[in-house]
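pls design
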């Protein structure tokens, strides 16, 4: 017979030994996932040494073993929190990050300010659908088109749009380089978290290096091939005065600004995230 507090201590030790950055948090979330409890619920039951059934204890230990091997927590639970949403994720799709929650705010703000009863936004390289769905749910009178190329990612995009899109998000299979010619000059906001890691760079975190799809990470020798294509596509899609929002690496702001300036964008600005790192660039058509 096993108690939650004993399982929790065991899980924390195993996760810490595996180098997981926040072992206590992940232990609580994994136990809660198996038992259907919030993190607070796990901690409350640990205080009174609640007993855990053998099959549930085995499931918790299996989940902890996977996480200790640095499989992403979101792959184990099948869910990734993103702003007000819970998105389904797994192998083949990029797991949305807290940094993108910061970046998408610029797109939401721009979309909300459009003087139209049904402003139009496009998310290029949508992946899980995080950016598209955040815009659609937080600007509820908007229309959003999500563009995704990867055959592995598309089922996840479709599933999340079905779950959260409320009929206002349209999924289009296609490459961001030549997407949506029928919308040229009609779009109010284009937003994207494109791949931006240089081919020679190796991500530090095993969760990224081993589990995120390469197509969502790497983009040419300098990491900016997708951004170059994105800039040209956004220039074509946006109406005059329309807004572009791009997430990028912390050392890429100057190069991205130069790309956008060469393509005719104005009001180019870089924005730092909560850790003070360059994280997003915005511009106007």
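designed seq:
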């Amino acid at each position: 017979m096993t108690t939650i507090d004993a399982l929790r201590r065991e899980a924390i030790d195993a996760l810490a030994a595996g180098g997981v950055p926040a072992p206590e948090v992940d232990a609580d979330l994994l136990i809660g996932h198996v038992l259907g409890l919030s993190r607070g619920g796990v901690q409350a039951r640990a205080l009174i040494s609640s007993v855990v059934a053998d099959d549930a204890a085995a499931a918790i230990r299996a989940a902890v073993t996977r996480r200790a091997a640095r499989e992403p927590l979101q792959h184990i639970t099948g869910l990734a929190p993103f702003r007000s949403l819970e998105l389904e994720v797994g192998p083949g799709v990029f797991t949305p990050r807290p940094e993108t929650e910061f970046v998408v705010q610029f797109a939401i703000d721009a979309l909300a300010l459009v003087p139209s009863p049904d402003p139009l936004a496009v998310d290029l390289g949508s992946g899980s659908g995080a950016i598209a769905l955040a815009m659609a749910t937080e600007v509820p009178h908007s229309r959003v088109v999500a563009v995704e190329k990867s055959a592995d990612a598309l089922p996840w995009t479709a599933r999340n749009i079905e779950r959260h899109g409320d009929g206002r998000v349209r999924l289009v299979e296609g490459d961001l380089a030549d997407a949506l010619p029928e919308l040229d000059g009609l779009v109010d906001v284009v937003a994207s978290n494109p791949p931006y890691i240089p081919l020679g760079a190796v991500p530090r975190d095993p969760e990224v290096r081993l589990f995120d799809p390469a197509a969502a990470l790497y983009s040419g020798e300098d990491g900016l091939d997708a951004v170059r294509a994105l800039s040209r596509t956004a220039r074509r899609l946006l109406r005059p005065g329309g807004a572009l929002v791009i997430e990028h690496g912390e050392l890429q702001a100057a190069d991205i600004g130069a790309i956008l300036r060469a393509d005719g964008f104005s009001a180019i600005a870089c924005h730092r995230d909560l850790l003070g790192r360059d994280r997003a660039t915005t511009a106007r058509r």
